[in-house]
């Protein structure tokens, strides 16, 4: 915030007769000076020039308030009308029609809001020229400044009362602002995003049983390999014991078959046994050997199932859910019955933010571009992320492109599952213009705006882009140097002659 600054407004009214012709023109100079104190701040209305020329045309009045917030424009216009009331009345008595419009022009400042305590102040924002001073403060030509220029009284007559006119004898101070710069065409789009952990996994059991004990609850930070819970599996324990017994039986049969095979092969050399008996002994040995291998595999299988009685953390992370308790029946995650996830574990040190980008912006999305995240729980703070991948496919239902943005979160400041607004600066192929919504004219010919060209009103067909509430994006139909009539009346027609008065105001470039 800084010293209140207000530039000198100017008004020119041109009048035209309807029935009578007056050979000599009427020119009246009506100076008026009004100052308003707001604490130590002031508003200065400099000398106003009112010129009346009688012609058979409807004229245009231009109101300039380059460094006055738009919330005060109507009040400033009311003050100017009150000052020019006598001249207007005289012209109207002569049969003249008086009209006044406001023109939008290129400005070195823009409008914004600033908070001071619990109050929101309408400010103008701009970059003061290098070397400009405001009190003891000097500016470098790069830093922006928000200035609250004060408020005009709602009652225009108060601005001309003797109390107001006699107050504030100190000279007003004006700050010159840098002219606006044309940046590379880019749109900042704000899209909703879902904050998810880099790794998120439900933990299931691989064996059936009852939960015997759990060791960590929600919010616990665990390391990879730490024991989370133990399951009792009496059936699996018995099956393992049975498999081990079967293996011992198979091994005993294999040993007997081995002895029988060796004996028969020795007797075969002396022709004491037939070849058939020797072959039977060899076959019995081979069969028992296979049975032993099968028994070993069964023992290993049930040993693995018994090892699943203990649930371990698969990676470093945080327990975000515990869905079981001691004594609960646990179903195997690989079974066909109802599956119960025992825990949820997430790794929040790095976050993934998924965003659906509208199709019209998809060509401007590039891997490696940065994005800023803002969350409601962190007002005024932004977290930077990097776009790492896209789906490279437009969803047929939503007509959006799914993108992933990774955000470092080493201290766990951001919580998984949060809603975030993602700010993306998407390059556009062409520059667009922003206009106040009260410049638009809706007629049967389509959407138009009224511009001033060669001192006459000319309609321009425009193509709207995004609607930002009080402003609307114009994609085509206008040039940056076009002068657009703000809040044009329904009676305005193409070809109406106008006269524009250019005022030399601090910060004006045109």
Quaternary status = single chain
Counted beta strands = 27
Low-confidence parts: 1-64, 168-172, 503-510
Structural class designation: alpha+beta
Determine the fraction of residues in helical runs and give it as a percent range. 10-25%
> Which strand order spans the largest sheet, edge to edge or round the barrel?
9-16-19-18-17-20
Helix segment count?
Answer: 6
Distance between the termini: 26 Å
Report the sheet with the most strands, covering strand number, pairing sense and barrel closure: 6 strands, antiparallel, barrel
The fraction of residues in strands falls at 25-35%
Radius of gyration: 42 Å
Helix and strand topology:
Blueprint: E1 34-38, E2 41-45, H1 73-83, H2 85-93, E3 102-104, E4 110-116, E5 119-126, E6 133-134, E7 137-138, E8 145-147, H3 156-159, H4 162-166, E9 186-204, E10 209-214, E11 221-222, E12 227-232, H5 234-269, H6 275-307, E13 310-312, E14 317-322, E15 329-330, E16 341-358, E17 370-374, E18 383-394, E19 400-408, E20 419-427, E21 433-436, E22 440-443, E23 446-453, E24 456-461, E25 463-467, E26 471-476, E27 484-486
Antiparallel strand pairs: 1-2, 3-27, 4-5, 5-8, 6-7, 9-16, 9-20, 10-12, 10-15, 11-14, 12-13, 14-16, 16-19, 17-18, 17-20, 18-19, 21-26, 22-23, 23-24, 25-26
Helix pairs in contact: 5-6
């Amino acid at each position: 915030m800084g010293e209140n600054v207000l530039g000198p407004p100017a008004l020119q009214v041109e009048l035209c007769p309807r029935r009578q012709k007056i050979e000599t023109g009427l020119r009246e100079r009506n100076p008026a000076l009004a100052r308003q104190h707001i604490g130590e701040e002031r508003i200065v209305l400099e000398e106003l020039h009112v010129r009346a020329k009688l012609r058979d045309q409807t004229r245009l009045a231009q109101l300039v308030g380059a460094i006055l917030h738009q919330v005060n424009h109507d009040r400033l216009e009311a003050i100017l009308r009150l000052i020019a009331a006598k001249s207007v009345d005289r012209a109207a008595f002569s049969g003249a029609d008086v009209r006044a419009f406001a023109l939008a022009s290129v400005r070195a400042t823009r409008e914004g809001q600033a908070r001071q305590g619990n109050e929101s102040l309408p400010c103008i924002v701009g970059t003061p020229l290098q070397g400009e001073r405001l009190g003891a403060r000097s500016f470098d030509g790069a830093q922006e400044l928000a200035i609250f220029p004060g408020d005009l009284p709602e009652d225009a007559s108060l601005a001309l009362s003797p109390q107001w006119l006699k107050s504030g004898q100190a000279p007003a101070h004006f700050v010159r602002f840098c002219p606006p710069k044309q940046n590379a065409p880019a749109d900042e789009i704000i899209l909703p995003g879902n904050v998810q952990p880099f790794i998120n996994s439900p933990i299931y059991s691989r064996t059936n049983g009852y939960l015997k004990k759990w060791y960590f609850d929600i919010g616990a930070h665990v390391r990879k390999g730490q024991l989370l819970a133990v399951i009792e599996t009496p059936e699996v324990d018995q099956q393992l014991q049975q498999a081990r017994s079967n293996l011992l039986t198979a091994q005993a049969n294999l040993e007997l078959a081995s002895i029988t095979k060796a004996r028969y092969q020795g007797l075969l050399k002396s022709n004491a046994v037939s070849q058939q008996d020797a072959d039977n002994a060899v076959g019995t040995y081979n069969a028992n050997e296979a049975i032993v291998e099968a028994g070993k595999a069964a023992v290993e299988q049930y040993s693995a199932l018994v090892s699943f009685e203990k649930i371990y953390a698969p990676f470093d992370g945080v327990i975000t859910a515990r869905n079981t308790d001691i004594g609960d029946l646990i179903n195997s995650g690989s079974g066909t019955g109802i599956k119960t996830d025992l825990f949820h574990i997430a790794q929040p040190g790095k976050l993934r933010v998924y965003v659906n980008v509208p199709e019209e912006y998809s060509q401007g999305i590039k891997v490696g571009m940065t994005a800023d995240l803002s969350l409601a729980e962190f007002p005024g703070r932004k977290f930077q992320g990097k776009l790492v991948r896209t789906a490279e496919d437009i969803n047929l239902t939503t007509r959006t492109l799914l993108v992933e943005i990774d955000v470092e979160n080493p201290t766990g400041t951001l919580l998984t599952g949060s809603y975030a607004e993602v700010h993306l600066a998407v390059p556009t192929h062409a520059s667009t213009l922003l206009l106040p919504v009260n410049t638009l004219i809706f007629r049967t010919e389509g959407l138009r705006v009224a511009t001033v060209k060669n001192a006459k009103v000319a309609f321009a067909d425009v193509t709207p882009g995004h609607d930002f509430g009080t402003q609307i994006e114009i994609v085509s139909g206008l040039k940056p140097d076009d002068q657009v009539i703000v809040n044009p009346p329904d009676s305005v027609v193409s070809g109406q002659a106008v006269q524009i008065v250019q005022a030399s105001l601090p910060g004006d470039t045109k």
